[in-house]
């Protein structure tokens, strides 16, 4: 009896020791940036940090690696089998984190959900006519005519469990602009590398390693736990990194990058981001909502728009605000995007005298007042950019009332078309110019699912025709000509005032190995911790 009892005690001691070792070996990566994800509903908001957070729980049919090349995700292969049909062969033996099998039915459900009116991803898949489950591991996506770039768009359509969504009454995406609260806003359940363990918006988000993740063998060393804390104050983010309270900062203040590089135990990764920063102007309304000009709209006159463009000294913004972590832009899309044209990416000359002359010719020799809406926790030094622009526009008599607010308030304001002048940044997850045209330039049309972020009121029948055409054209040379023509038209019409392309710096402990993604979207399954 004594021997047996001692054997039990020894076994229990060994078990406890093993558990302690397991806990000690667990790797937690603590990270921070200035603003939180807007929602955990994967189809509600097409916003970079939101998608970056959601991609750890949910996955698309196709994924992107650190070089942004397309790689198999939930689909092992894809190919066109007819001019209007793509076939996707799904990965077998994949389970959602609750243990239920992933099948073609979940793909059909998720794509239909992403096409719902409250989805901010409708324009991604506006060409889709039907999604069919051929068998449990085969899906056919039928489009309205050919769509050579459909695979690029599928990288951003994340797959939800049909059963889970029905159980929790979230078969339709959250209406973010109406501040709708649903179960999917604070809860999530997908096939990705992590499960959502705790979600306190704007406070703390904790994710734990998904024990059922199909990619565990391919990514054996990624952190066991992610703890995300939004830290709005720049100095506090840097202090947290230097003190070791966090291991990774997505957006350390640019003025502190040199200090971080010189701090023992810290390092940085840097690259040109696939994102451009610009101003949008309401040129379509009969009268600006937030201006002292009544009875007409000064932004409807291209001379005013060009005057504003030429009054902004982007080189000064680059040097003084961005600490040289930006590249002056003439286009609102960056190098690395298919169709980007270096010749059109050259800016008009900074010329205050010419700008004043244009204002006078347009009938505004003394300028006017207008409100500028700006986020203060979304892009690198966004509020400081707006402050600089405010001073520069004052040189030509435009008196700017700067209203800086959190992105959680900024984006709903834009989505309600409640802004006369605004700052916006645009990344291109598809790496193709069509994405920019269909969201920002095409005439806003809910039925066609295009122009959903066109808050300028800009409308060009010719550009609409080109954008529709480039979505269907399979001849690459003809398609490239359409893109070039569309960019030439967009630059000439000037509904947006380009500022710069972002350069990004990720700062981290030297205990962290993390490749930088040019879309500024860290995917921690590619990370490792010592």
Sequence-ordered SSE layout with sheet pairings:
Blueprint: H1 2-25, E1 28-33, H2 48-54, E2 62-64, E3 70-72, E4 75-82, E5 85-90, H3 104-114, E6 128-135, E7 138-143, H4 150-154, H5 162-167, H6 183-186, E8 194-200, E9 204-209, E10 225-230, H7 234-243, E11 248-249, H8 257-262, E12 266-281, H9 302-311, H10 314-321, E13 326-328, H11 352-361, E14 368-375, H12 382-394, E15 398-405, H13 407-415, E16 421-427, H14 433-441, H15 461-472, H16 476-493, E17 496-509, E18 512-513, E19 528-529
Parallel strand pairs: 1-10, 1-11, 14-15, 14-16
Antiparallel strand pairs: 2-3, 4-5, 5-7, 6-7, 8-9, 9-10, 11-17, 12-16, 12-17, 13-17, 18-19
Helix pairs in contact: 9-11, 14-15, 15-16
Low-confidence stretches: 1-24
Quaternary: single chain
Span of the ends, CA to CA: 45 Å
What's the CATH H-level homologous superfamily of the largest domain? Dipeptide-binding Protein, Domain 3
Describe this structure in words.
The longest helix has 24 residues. Helix content is 31%, strand content 23%. The strands form four sheets. Strands 1, 8, 9, 10, 11, 12, 13, 14, 15, 16 and 17 form an eleven-stranded mixed sheet that branches. It has a four-stranded antiparallel sheet with strand order 4-5-7-6, covered by helices on one side. A two-stranded antiparallel sheet has the order 2-3. A hairpin with a 5-residue loop joins strand 2 and strand 3. It is built from 16 helices and 19 strands. Helix 9 packs antiparallel against helix 11 and helix 14 packs antiparallel against helix 15. By secondary structure, the chain is α+β, with helices and mostly antiparallel strands. The chain folds into two domains: 219 residues, D-Maltodextrin-Binding Protein, domain 2, CATH 3.40.190; 231 residues, Roll (Dipeptide-binding Protein, domain 3), CATH 3.10.105.
